[in-house]
Design a protein that fits this description.
Elements: E1 16-18, H1 28-44, E2 49-51, H2 63-66, H3 69-85, E3 92-101, E4 104-113, E5 116-117
Parallel strand pairs: 1-2, 2-3
Antiparallel strand pairs: 3-4, 4-5
Length: about 120
């Protein structure tokens, strides 16, 4: 790929954005919307990577909220929407969320690029 000399990417650098949305406790749709807005801003500013806080889609709360199926299911729905909405964005996006796997709950980071979950 031929990049202009003045581009940081021509010299092996990567522009990284640390984004911290104002989160709403136990409101994944609002948190996903705010996360996506900041991911779009990072894209506009030519970031190659944008990282979000731990548990950014659910927000931190008392432990008992993480045991609520409604919260975890809402996070899962928002992950799909966030992936779809990020398809046109260039940066690698890393967002924190609670994730249920095999009946256990984990504090994870989801890595998205161009609408696809990578890990």
């Amino acid at each position: 790929m031929n990049r202009p000399f003045r581009s940081i990417y021509s010299h092996g650098f990567l522009r990284v954005a640390a984004a911290v949305p104002r989160v709403a406790i136990a409101d994944p749709p609002v948190n996903a919307e705010r996360t996506l807005a900041l991911a779009r801003r990072a894209d506009e500013r030519a970031a190659g990577l944008v990282v979000f806080p731990e548990l950014g889609l659910s927000a931190y709360s008392n432990d008992d909220l993480f045991q609520q199926d409604a919260l975890i299911e809402a996070v899962e729905r928002e992950v799909a929407g966030l992936a779809d909405a990020s398809a046109a964005l260039v940066p690698l996006i890393v967002v924190g969320l609670p994730l249920r796997v095999d009946g256990r709950l984990y504090n994870c980071a989801l890595v998205l690029h161009r609408g696809r979950p990578l890990g």
